[in-house]
Specification:
The structure holds two protein chains of two kinds. Helix content of chain A is 69%, strand content 0%. Chain A is mostly helical. The two termini of chain A are 29 Å apart. Chain A has one domain: Orthogonal Bundle (MetI-like fold), CATH 1.10.3720.10. Chain B is mostly helical. Chain B has two domains: 32-77, no CATH class; 87-301, MetI-like (MetI-like fold). Classes of the chains: A mainly alpha, B mainly alpha. Chains A and B meet through helix 5, helix 6, helix 9 and helix 11 of A and helix 1, helix 5, helix 6, helix 9 and helix 10 of B.
């Protein structure tokens, strides 16, 4: 089984910066080690991990799951229900619903992961810098964040996307994905900025930071070797859950007609295309919706399992 | 308290100005033709574009445009949409429906969310607790439109318990299912927040004192525990009223409700920016003002909090 090693690598990777060169082997009972010990006893963690691997495999090698071509359409079979040859039936254009659901995983996960990555980079960096340097930088970053948070999420995305990629326009495949990722990150970073900021403000006055400063460490060294590793836990948890909610947000925007659109294959588009045929062909909409919900569930579950394990209050 | 309120109000000013400026700038100034698709399949003639630009003041410098927008907003003059219908009339027709929907959603959040949270928090690790934890996990993972279409299909199409779409009158019984859909996500959050709060407060000294005094279980929970535990929950419910408004865009679109959200949904699809800008501005204002009110209410609910 490959799953434990994957996570161990992840945890080891996160562990390295905290372990000082003088640390003895016995004293390596770091936060991450404790977390792992708790995590591996949790059923919900293993369930979400298996689901995660399944979805990642689907995104990377969709042909493993279906031999059908998601673009191949037989109009004669339009909206035919599930049968033995097409488990999930056919959609409006007579394309295989299962094949399109499998191929849709890649788009949704790529959008979710990249948007989260951008959010973590922008939000984490601004948050850490604002908290470390304080003063005017903190004031500006906090006010800009407040302004963006003052815009309800869906509304903000609607305003931006509705103007740069209105419903009737037809931008290219890569272009529209990039635009959606940028919009999600643009509206999402303030929350992460706040998390990173408060984590760093708490850590800033700890003795080990004072000690590092007394030893002559510069701001870069303090931020990257001391503050960041110790503020990583809340950021990591939030990021995992955010991947899930961004996947849901992408589908919501696609449903409104201003997010992704054909020829991109995604769950949101499949749902949007068949929303008006819900009476005659519910299968064309519910199977992609089920994939979407399961995928969001996977990330939310994983994030919650990690958060519970990291939370010292529950120990 | 008074001084704190004034300071918070003053802090609100730059945020309101900034957000409304972003909305205006985004919609009118970004590359892309705001009048595209106004003339059918062919591009609009130059004379039409010039006339429209003049009518909506797009030929003026951006700061002047923004100034005019603010002035119009404050005097209640919201202008007309591309079809010449007054935006203010459309808003006046739509507001009551959305407010009704949002209030019902908040009521569901409070009743079901707090109820489930209290029951699961009091018996941590018990059967009800597990049921609540798992069902809230599912609610949190279902995007709001999936819940909406699912209920519409199951209740409306399969079993015929409700009408799949809501009529123009949007009476209270018709709005029950849409309000549940709108509330679903926050209901889960409320339940979890209540549970955490109850679990934490159960260990508090004042609860132990109340029990030691020999008070009945009912009084300990109902008077001492609930009052203190519900403060963060009420704050959450309050701050989320504003975001309910933007959730209403999806819900009203699905159930074809003619409220603010539905208005915005149709304006986006029809690319009518004259409606998008004032509606978005109003939604943002509602969001910010409810947040402010909740912050002020916090001090009233929890006397330990003092505003300097």
């Amino acid at each position: 089984m490959s799953d434990p090693t994957v996570t161990q690598d992840l945890i080891k990777g996160a562990d390295e910066p905290t372990a000082s060169p003088v640390a003895v082997k016995d004293s390596r009972r770091s936060l991450w080690r404790d977390t792992w010990d708790i995590l591996k006893r949790r059923k919900i963690f293993w369930i979400s991990l298996v689901m995660l691997i399944l979805f990642l495999a689907m995104a990377a090698f969709p042909s493993l799951f279906t031999h059908k071509d998601p673009e191949y359409a037989t109009l004669a079979k339009s909206m035919e229900g599930p049968s033995s040859e097409a488990w999930f039936g056919y959609d409006l254009q007579g394309r295989d619903v299962f094949a399109r659901a499998v191929y849709g995983a890649r788009t949704s996960i790529v959008v979710g992961v990249l948007a989260t990555l951008a959010t973590v980079l922008i939000g984490g960096l601004t948050g850490v810098l604002a908290a470390y340097f304080g003063r005017w930088l903190d004031a500006i970053v906090s006010r800009v964040g407040e302004m963006l948070l003052g815009l309800p999420y869906v509304l903000g995305a609607i305003i931006i996307l509705g103007t740069i990629a209105p419903a009737q326009s037809n931008p290219g495949k890569v272009m529209i994905m990039a635009v959606v990722i940028i919009v999600l990150a643009l509206l999402g970073w303030p929350i992460l900025m706040r998390i990173a900021r408060s984590a760093v403000i708490q850590a800033k006055h700890q003795d080990y930071v004072q000690a590092a400063r007394a030893l002559g460490a510069g701001p870069m060294r303090i931020i990257f070797r001391h503050l960041l590793p110790n503020s990583l836990a809340p950021i990591l948890v939030y990021a995992t859950i955010t991947i899930g909610s961004f996947i849901g947000a992408e589908a919501t925007l696609s449903l409104l007609g201003i997010g992704l659109r054909s020829p991109v294959i995604s769950w949101g588009i499949a749902i949007a295309d068949h929303a008006s045929y819900i009476r005659t062909a519910p299968h064309a909409m519910f199977f992609p919706a089920a994939f979407l919900s399961l995928c969001v569930l996977t990330f939310v579950m994983l994030g919650e399992a990690v958060r519970d394990a990291l939370d010292p209050k529950l120990r | 308290m008074g001084r704190y309120a004034i300071r918070r109000l003053l802090q609100l000013v730059p945020v309101v100005l900034g957000t409304t400026f972003i909305i205006n700038y985004m919609v009118w100034q970004l590359p892309g033709d705001p009048f595209a698709g106004r003339c059918g399949q062919r591009p609009c003639p130059d004379s039409y574009v010039t006339a429209m630009r003049e009518q909506f003041g797009l030929d003026q410098p951006i700061l002047l445009q923004y100034w005019n927008f603010l002035k119009n907003l404050l005097t209640g003059n919201l202008g007309t949409d591309f079809n010449g219908v007054s935006v203010a009339t459309q808003l006046a027709d739509a507001w009551p429906i959305t407010i009704r929907l949002a209030l019902m959603a908040v009521a569901f959040e409070a009743l079901i969310g707090i109820g489930a949270g209290v029951l699961s928090g009091l018996k941590r690790g018990g059967f009800i607790d597990n049921v609540v934890t798992i069902s809230t996990l599912f609610l949190l993972s279902l995007p709001i439109f999936v819940t909406g279409y699912l209920l519409q299909w199951v209740l409306g199409v399969q079993f015929g318990v409700i009408e799949p779409t809501v009529s123009d009158a949007a009476t209270i019984p018709e709005l029950i299912v849409p309000a549940l859909v709108l509330a679903s996500l926050n209901m889960a959050f409320t339940a979890r927040l209540t549970r955490t709060s109850i679990v934490e407060n159960l260990r508090a000294d004042y609860v132990r004192t109340a029990v030691a005094k020999g008070l009945s279980n009912r009084r300990v929970v109902g008077v001492h525990l609930l009052r203190n535990s519900l403060i963060p929950v009420l704050t959450f419910l309050g701050t989320e009223v504003g975001s309910l408004m933007s959730g209403a865009i999806i819900t009203e679109g699905i159930f074809n409700i003619h409220g603010i959200g539905g208005l915005l949904w149709r304006a986006i699809n029809g690319q009518d920016y004259t409606i998008v800008v004032p509606v978005a501005t109003l939604l943002v204002l509602v969001y910010l003002i409810t947040n402010l009110l909740v912050d002020l209410l916090y001090g009233v609910l929890d006397p330990r909090i003092r505003y300097e």
